[in-house]
Amino acid sequence: MIVSNKRDNPVCDTLAINRSDVEEVDKVIYLGTAIDSKLNFKTDTDAVVKKAHKRLFIMKQLSATRVSQPIRIRCYPTFIECIFLNHLW
Q: Mind listing the pLDDT tens digit for each residue in 41-63?
């Protein structure tokens, strides 16, 4: 049933699919990407940044323990690049 509010914007009162009511939620995770009810990706972006900071800390620890540069270069795609590449789809 569609009802109109004072601004004449259609608002869905209830939505049913196959005679089952559909629940309205603030956030949904679809294919690993968090999307909120306003189609913003801030929650997902914050999660990716948080994960990247954790992995960057690991890279800094490798540098602090004097791990050789060739090994650190090999670790970079595993720790850092994979986070960003998985979220480009």
A: 888 888 888 888 988 898 899 88
